[in-house]
Design goal:
With 281 residues, this protein is an alpha/beta fold. The protein is 38% helix and 22% strand.
């Protein structure tokens, strides 16, 4: 895997079980075995008030659902018209997700365009925190903002690691790149003793091989690389792994979802179950 951050490469190299060629890291089998043994197979997730929300674990018989796809537009339910996403949409949508019993968590819902770009992450987290008691899955777009996000939540909540109700969400860059922003955010989250989601987005025929098996192999390799990195930073760090496979339309240069997408998502879930790691998809 290509590791863009020098500090992250040093973390890999200290293990003694990698072969390094400039930015390319070749992870040996024994290091993957170590990470799989070290990572917890059970993660307790709480509500903002400290009550237990749910537990993610191996051989999961129950699924837990949340809302949030980082929209840039919002469809008004009264007029049916689409308009740019703003802070008010984040607030009312988060509150709606909090009221609907069949949603278990709230993810980052959108990117408001009435906020300065450098402040979007902070306002999003503030609006989600104020308008929901449910666990929050946070997508932090700016790598250098995550420490400020933790400071903000800590000033409002106090201790955020004892009963974690926030789960940051991170992505590598397919195919097979651990970018600096992602590794920086992972290290900051691990230092806060919080669980996090490490999930990839692959476009078969574009950023991953066009075959289902080839894509699954590449996406699984990315997830295992992220897992190894997390356990090298701190052993027993709780991690949730998952994929969002999509197709690549060479005519429109866009993505699409198909039966193959969902089968690959299911295959990724089964792989994570085999590894005894909580899965998202």
């Amino acid at each position: 895997i290509k590791v863009e951050c020098e500090a992250a490469r040093k973390i890999f190299s200290k293990s003694g079980s990698v072969i390094q060629n400039d930015e390319i890291i070749y992870i040996q089998e024994e290091l993957i075995d170590y990470a799989l043994e070290a990572v917890p197979s059970k993660i307790k997730v709480f509500k903002k008030n400290g009550q237990h929300a749910f537990t993610l674990k191996e051989n999961q018989e129950e699924s837990y659902f949340g809302i949030g796809v980082t929209n840039i537009n919002f469809q008004d339910i009264k007029t049916n018209k689409t308009k740019p996403f703003i802070r008010n949409h984040m607030q009312v949508s988060t509150k709606l997700g909090d009221l609907l019993e069949n949603f278990d968590m709230i993810s980052t819902l959108g990117i408001p365009n009435d906020v300065a770009p450098q402040n979007v992450d902070l306002y999003n987290v503030l609006d989600m925190y104020v308008n929901s008691e449910k666990p929050l899955v946070l997508l932090i777009s700016e790598g250098n903002k995550i420490s400020e996000v933790f400071d903000l939540i800590g000033s409002l909540q106090g201790n955020i690691s004892e009963k974690p109700f926030i789960i940051p969400y991170f992505n590598p860059v397919s195919p097979l790149v651990l970018n600096k922003s992602t590794t920086d955010k992972m290290v900051e989250t691990i230092n806060q003793q919080l669980p996090f989601i490490f999930s990839n987005y692959g476009m078969y025929g574009g950023t991953t091989p066009i075959s289902e098996a080839g894509s699954l192999a590449v996406l699984t390799a990315e997830l295992l690389a992220g897992l190894v990195f997390s356990q090298l930073v701190k052993k027993s760090t709780p991690v949730i792994l998952g994929s969002l496979p999509a197709g690549f339309d060479m005519q429109t240069m866009g993505t699409f979802y198909s039966t193959s997408s969902y089968l690959m998502n299911l295959a990724s879930a089964e792989m994570m179950n085999h590894y005894k790691i909580p899965h998202c998809g």
